[in-house]
Specification:
Blueprint (H helix, E strand, L loop, with lengths): L1 H29 L1 E14 L2 E2 L2 E2 L2 E13 L2 E8 L11 E6 L8 E2 L7 H19 L1 H4 L13 H29 L1 H17 L1
Antiparallel strand pairs: 1-4, 1-6, 2-3, 4-5, 6-7
């Protein structure tokens, strides 16, 4: 059933949103905030199509510093393709001190990615349910959904979507409030290290 494909894709994308939200939140809770700087622009091949590659895309390369065993080290990461940045631009980055090269999060650069997953996911899910509403409505009772028509269901689905947005926003605000003291401590650590060398 074609509608089932839309529902499954939608659910996977929504789960992708939840994964990104939880992962980034975990990095912020357990991580350290510092600054990443654009050190170069990487020119890479675009996606391949029938006529070959679609062209060249520009990918910014960031570098940030972190402490390991008391020593200051640096690591390079790639940002989003075709980002409007220049060499020397800076952006905040959170990293997990236990594994900086892999567990990091660029809040200003990756902010909208999870919402893209959410919006497209809900869109696919809504289309799938709409196409097979007569079939899926027979199982609404399993999830405690009353016997409602299609319009009523999508109104409820819209409020669920708003709930996801609200939950994400509140989580982000709380995380920002929690990490203010930690960020001050990290700035002091950087200052003390630089004064010692």
């Amino acid at each position: 059933m074609a509608s089932s494909i839309f529902v499954i894709i939608g659910l996977f994308l929504i789960l992708g949103f939840l994964y990104i939200l939880i992962r980034n939140g975990k990095i912020k809770r357990n991580g350290i905030l510092t600054t990443a700087k654009v050190v170069s622009i990487s020119l890479e091949k675009g996606s391949e199509n029938e006529e070959g590659f679609s062209g060249v895309i520009k990918v910014p390369v960031y570098s940030f510093e972190y402490y390991k065993n008391g020593n200051l080290q640096s690591h390079r990461i790639k940002g989003r393709s075709n980002s409007k940045v220049e060499i020397g631009d800076v952006t905040p980055v959170y990293y997990n001190p236990k594994n900086p090269p892999k567990d990091y999060y660029l809040p200003k650069k990756d902010f909208f990615i999870k919402y893209v997953f959410l919006v497209i996911g809900f869109g696919f899910f809504a289309i799938g349910i709409s196409k097979g509403f007569d079939f899926y409505s027979n199982y609404f009772y399993v999830f405690g959904i009353p016997n409602i028509d299609k319009e009523g269901f999508f109104i409820r689905l819209f409020f669920v979507f708003l709930g996801f947005i609200l939950w994400s926003s509140i989580t982000r605000i709380i995380n920002n409030l929690i990490f203010k003291k930690k960020n001050k401590a990290v700035d002091l650590q950087h200052k003390n290290y630089k004064e010692s060398i």
